[in-house]
C-alpha cells in the first residue's frame, strides 16, 4: 500500500498503525503549504486534498479512522474488534473519538500556527479550544480509570486514533491541566512501533515550537 503523509499531521495515525501491524508500505512525504495537497493527482486520492491518503491495491481512501478500521478488518485483526466482539461498541467509539479530539487540535493549530497575522488570531478561540481539548482528554482518562489503554482487553486501533491527539496535546496543554496526561503520553512513547513511526515522520513542517502558550485573559 502507499501512504501520502505530511509530517506531524493526522496521517501520522496511519503511519503508526502500519508499524503496529508490521505491514509494508511505500511512504510519500508532502508539504503543508497547500500546493502539493491540491494537485489533480492528490485530489483523486483525497476529495478535500488532505492527508492521510492511501491507495490499497490502487483504490484510494482518505479518512484515517476508516483506513485503520479497514486495515484491521483485512490485514491486522489484533488491532481491531470485529462485529460480534464484546468490545465492538467501545472500539468504534474510541476509533471515532479521535476526531472529537482532533477538531480542537486543528482549531488550536489554526490560531497558533497557521494564521500568521496577529489580527487574524483569536485569544478567545485559543483559550476556549484549549479548555475543550482538555475536557476531551479528561473524559477519556476518567473512562480508562485504572487501565493503560481504552479497551479492557488491551491496545487497539482506537488507541492510535485517540493517542495521536494525546501526543499532540503537548503543544497546547501543560501537564498539570490534565492529570494523567503525561503518563499517557509516556505509555504511547514507550511503544516500539510508535518510535519507529516517529523515525519515519519526516522533518517538522507544522509545529516549530515545543509549546504554544495562550494569551492570559
Ligand atoms: N478526518 C480526516 C481529517 C484529515 C485532515 O483534515 N488532515 C489535515 C492535516 S491534520 C489536512 O490534510 N489539512 C490540509 C488542508 O486542510 O488543506 C482524518 O482524520 O483523516
TrEMBL record:
InterPro entries: Glutathione-S-Trfase_C_sf, Glutathione_S-Trfase, Glutathione_S-Trfase_N, Thioredoxin-like_sf. One of its GO terms (molecular function) is transferase activity. It comes from Falsigemmobacter intermedius. Keywords: Transferase. It comes from the Bacteria. Residues 1-79 form the GST N-terminal domain. CDD domains: GST_N_GTT1_like (cd03046). This is Glutathione S-transferase.
Amino acid at each position: 500500500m502507499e501512504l501520502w503523509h505530511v509530517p506531524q499531521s493526522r496521517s501520522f495515525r496511519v503511519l503508526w498503525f502500519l508499524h503496529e501491524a508490521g505491514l509494508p508500505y511505500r511512504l510519500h512525504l508532502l508539504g503543508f503549504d497547500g500546493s502539493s495537497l491540491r494537485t489533480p493527482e492528490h485530489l483523486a486520492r483525497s476529495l478535500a486534498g488532505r492527508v492521510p491518503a492511501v491507495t490499497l491495491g490502487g483504490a484510494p481512501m482518505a479518512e484515517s479512522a476508516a483506513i485503520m478500521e479497514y486495515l484491521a478488518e483485512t490485514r491486522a485483526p489484533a488491532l481491531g474488534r470485529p462485529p460480534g466482539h464484546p468490545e465492538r461498541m467501545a472500539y468504534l467509539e474510541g476509533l471515532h473519538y479521535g476526531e472529537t479530539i482532533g477538531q480542537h487540535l486543528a482549531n488550536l493549530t489554526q490560531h497558533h500556527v497557521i494564521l500568521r497575522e496577529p489580527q487574524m488570531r483569536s485569544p478567545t478561540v485559543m483559550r476556549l479550544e484549549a479548555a475543550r481539548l482538555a475536557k476531551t482528554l479528561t473524559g477519556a482518562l476518567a473512562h480508562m480509570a485504572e487501565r493503560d489503554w481504552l479497551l479492557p482487553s488491551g491496545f487497539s486501533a482506537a488507541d492510535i486514533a485517540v493517542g495521536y491527539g494525546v501526543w499532540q496535546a503537548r503543544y497546547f496543554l501543560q501537564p498539570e491541566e490534565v492529570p494523567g496526561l503525561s503518563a499517557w503520553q509516556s505509555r504511547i512513547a514507550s511503544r516500539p512501533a510508535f518510535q519507529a513511526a516517529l523515525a519515519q515522520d519526516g522533518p517538522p513542517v507544522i509545529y516549530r515550537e515545543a509549546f504554544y502558550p495562550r494569551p492570559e485573559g
